[in-house]
Design brief:
The protein has 21 helices and 19 strands. With 506 residues, it is an alpha/beta fold. The longest helix is centred in the last third of the chain and has 25 residues.
Length: 506
């Protein structure tokens, strides 16, 4: 067999050998054979076998220039052997094809037959259930390729071949999973990458267009406006933006700035009314969010931590521009200023920072008169894990807002980095508490078991029982969930609580 063939069994008793495998023939059965397949029909019983076959060749565009288009024959089709999805619509098309048998090349009936054949093949592809597993993995490989090569002149036939799909079937399965065609996906990806650059750089539009795969600046501007409703220059100055936040701390920043994201990962303690997203906290966590909510919101901007950026880009970068704000290399004040710049709330950020500093200065004065200048050690006990914290997360309020002293080992670690960055915590064993002597010891625990574990150390471990804060009964347990909120609402509530607890134990 040198052509592809669709074989239809109208009636009869018998069997079919396909590449050495036997299968009994059934009425209204449909088969798809590829060039090189070995097919043998065996009649059985008294009823004669009535078969109809259509042989055809398929060609794909391989090269296109102004004056010339080149095609190559393709010898692959996603469906092979027995096709199980033969419905009434398929049977009607086959009946029409049978009625056109004998049509000569060039006749209107011949072209009508070609159109019916195309309709038959497209219908079979559309009605065939998408298989998970291998097909899904191969589809994801093509998406990852587009994410990495969106600036290049990507041919869809090449992408389909990369995933070992027929181009028509690839478009079908892609649209079924991603809710858009591959061409729309790559175009949306390029436009969103351009939006990211417009929001985060001062590059001219011509440079941005070239960097995302458009050689013509004016063509880029037209496509950009058609997709977003704004020209590139207007989008960069847009004051009111629809946003989505993929990280709880940044959701709190937006909330504090008076900008409510349409959907967000949020802390339970923040009274923000929005569509809550259940997303990974860290790069190692799985991404379980569907695309539907993002497509429904149609955001102008998505913000996230840099540690989840790769996953966000993989799943939703064709839906909206994604801007990541560095998490550990910036402190909470830098987070505030960066996010404020993205949503044009710089004045709100300035006002919040000034108010917070005034509040912190008030508490610093009260504490100097009440407890002097004590040393404070900050510990987190969760399960079998024990950590000592620096001037970030739990330590921000104590060491930066209230200007209290840290144990020497913590101080040395903090001095190696800009304030509130780089160093967050260090893991220790229970015996190592001896190296973190302080006047006050605050211990964040998640549950009663963690608290009992610390009590056990204070009773039985000599390094705990001899710790200055333990001997002077200046040990305070605080709630881990509340104190690990490194965000504006978090440090506001922590500031008042820290000062109050210190004054209680003076």
């Amino acid at each position: 067999m040198t052509h592809q063939m669709v074989l239809f069994v109208m009636m009869g008793d018998g069997g079919l050998f396909h590449n050495g495998q036997y299968e009994a023939l059934e009425r209204d059965a449909l088969y798809m054979f590829m060039p090189g397949d070995r097919v043998q029909i065996c009649a059985q019983g008294e009823k004669p076998i009535q078969l109809y076959g259509v042989s055809f060749d398929r060609y794909a565009l391989t090269n296109k220039t102004t004056n010339r288009m080149e095609y190559a024959r393709e010898d692959f089709f996603p469906l092979q052997g027995r096709v199980k999805t033969v419905g009434n619509h398929t049977l009607r098309i086959i009946a029409l094809l049978i009625s056109l048998q004998g049509a000569k090349t060039g006749e209107p009936r011949h072209f009508q037959g070609q159109q019916l054949l195309l309709e038959l093949l497209d219908g079979l592809l559309e009605c065939t259930p998408t298989k998970s597993g291998d097909a899904a993995v191969r589809l994801q490989e093509t998406i990852e390729y587009m994410l990495d090569h969106y600036q290049e002149n990507i041919q869809m036939s090449e992408i389909a071949a990369l995933g070992q799909f027929h181009p028509s079937y690839y478009s079908q399965i892609f649209k079924q999973i991603m809710k858009k065609t591959p061409i729309a996906f790559i175009t949306d990806l390029r436009i969103n990458k351009a939006k990211e650059l417009l929001l985060t750089t001062k590059k001219p539009v011509s440079d941005i267009a070239a960097s995302v795969g458009f050689n013509d600046e004016f063509y880029f501007s037209r496509r950009f406006k058609r997709k977003s409703g704004y020209s590139p220059s207007v989008f960069a100055r847009k004051r009111e933006m629809t946003t989505i936040s993929l990280s709880s701390p940044y959701s709190d920043h937006l909330y504090t700035l008076g900008h409510i994201p349409r959907a967000a990962q949020i802390y339970r303690s923040i009274p923000m009314k929005t569509q809550e997203l259940h997303l990974p906290e860290h790069a190692s966590d799985p991404w379980n969010a569907g695309r539907e909510i993002f497509m429904k919101v149609k955001p102008d901007l998505i913000v996230c931590k840099d540690n989840v950026l790769a996953k966000a880009q993989e799943h939703i970068n064709d839906i909206a521009p994604i801007v990541s704000i560095p998490w550990s290399s910036q402190d909470i004040y830098q987070h505030m200023q960066t996010i404020a710049g993205l949503v044009h709330r710089q004045e709100s950020a300035k006002h919040w920072l000034e108010e917070y500093e005034r509040r912190a200065e008030t508490w610093r004065k009260k504490l100097r008169g009440s407890v002097g200048s004590p040393t404070v050690a900050l510990c987190v006990c969760r399960g079998r894990e024990l950590r000592m914290y620096g001037a970030r997360n739990i330590g921000h309020v104590f060491y930066r807002s209230l200007n209290l002293a840290a144990p020497d080992r913590i101080s040395r670690q903090m001095k190696r980095y800009p304030a509130g960055t780089g160093f967050t915590w260090t893991s220790i064993s229970p015996d190592e508490i001896q190296y973190y002597e302080a006047d006050f010891l605050f211990i964040a625990v998640e549950n009663a078991s963690d608290k009992q574990r610390v009590f056990h150390w204070m009773r039985s471990n000599p390094f705990w029982s001899s710790h200055p804060a333990v001997r002077k009964q200046r040990v305070t347990f605080i709630n881990w969930e509340k104190w690990m909120m490194y965000s504006p609402s978090g440090i506001q509530s922590q500031l008042d609580e820290a000062a109050y607890l210190l004054m209680l134990q003076r």
